[in-house]
């Protein structure tokens, strides 16, 4: 073995194994032993990079979170120069629906982490911070669409944003854990976007 | 020890310990050893009633599910003789919001099971069956409210029902795992019920 081990590469190898275990068997199955077997390295090697179960959880969630963010940025970049509020909000929320296998793997990790956060306050606070930011951005979009007359008024923008965001998460949850079809999820979200923000431009 | 052990009482004692472990530490922590320690009995005794981890999972979920159903029945019974569609749907969906400690404990078990079902097809099919039934009931209520003019038309009742149900589940998820306030969750759900089914009767 060469003296200069490529730390970055080794860490990525272990991280990828960790994500495969989490995505296929849930975070409950993420253990030193399982991850080491999946990565084809020793338990000691895994422990060197991820000393505790919590540090593994944390890594898995940040990793899935970073991919959600990248997908949202890609979705926005694909909209062109001056997207409408309807297009912007729709593109962001569609990212929350686990439509293909990669997205489903990340959604499983996110769901396992949400379940973990439900019993651990500090993790819930982390999730809450990111959620509040997205909710406030959505509320701004709804408020702006209402002010131009594109969206129907009479609905509190923050309540509408809270509900719309929760609907997208709930649809994702049901696709993943209760066999809701992705077509039904997309149709339900689209119908709600029409109601909250007006129909899409033709 | 008397020869005639009270099996029912012992089973309930172990089941209650199992639910306490699941609610406070998540289903991942539900093990023979943990449950036995919590119940103050031997691991062998726990194994007698729940031979496998899957049988524990199954019991915990059925138990939480039965309490959801009882709460929904109570909520409907509290509505009087001829509730409007708005009242009926509202009462059913509010049960999905974890508003007090007992409901939060059950919601943690439900969430842990959803996460488990996301990696296990048979569990997802179980959840899916119950969900489809509720969704179809909600769609009937929306359709009926639209036909009497109480609710605005122009929205597909099944899409609206799918979205509304997912919104309630998503709000519950965010209350539990991301620190969304119960007030914000109730306000968002109420606003959506007004939109889908018309304002409540005065």
Automatic annotation (TrEMBL), chains A, B:
DNA-binding region: 31-50
Keyword terms: DNA-binding, Repressor, Transcription, Transcription regulation
Keyword match Signal: no
Keyword presence, Chaperone: no
Domain HTH tetR-type span(s) in chain numbering: 8-68
SUPFAM superfamilies (alphabetical): Homeodomain-like (SSF46689), Tetracyclin repressor-like, C-terminal domain (SSF48498)
Pfam families for the chain: TetR_C_6 (PF13977), TetR_N (PF00440)
GO MF term set: DNA-binding transcription factor activity; transcription cis-regulatory region binding
Protein name per the record: Transcriptional regulator, TetR family
Native source species: Modestobacter italicus (strain DSM 44449 / CECT 9708 / BC 501)
């Amino acid at each position: 073995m060469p003296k200069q081990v490529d730390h970055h590469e080794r860490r990525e190898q272990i991280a990828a194994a960790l994500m495969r275990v989490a995505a296929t068997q849930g975070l409950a199955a993420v253990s030193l032993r399982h991850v080491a077997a999946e990565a084809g390295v020793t338990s000691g090697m895994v422990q060197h990079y991820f000393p505790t179960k919590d540090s593994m959880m944390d890594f898995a969630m940040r990793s899935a979170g970073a991919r959600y963010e990248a997908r949202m940025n890609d979705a926005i970049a694909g909209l062109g120069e001056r997207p409408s509020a309807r297009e912007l909000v729709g593109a962001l929320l569609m990212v929350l629906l686990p439509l293909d296998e990669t997205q489903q793997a990340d959604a499983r990790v996110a769901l396992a982490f949400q379940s973990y956060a439900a019993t651990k306050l500090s993790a819930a606070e982390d999730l809450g911070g990111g959620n509040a930011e997205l909710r406030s951005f959505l509320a701004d979009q709804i408020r702006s669409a209402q002010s131009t007359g594109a969206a129907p008024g009479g609905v509190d923008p923050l309540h509408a944003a809270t509900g719309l965001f929760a609907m997208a998460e709930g649809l994702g949850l049901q696709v993943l854990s209760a066999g809701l079809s992705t077509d039904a999820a997309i149709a339900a979200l689209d119908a709600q976007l029409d109601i909250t923000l007006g129909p899409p431009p033709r």
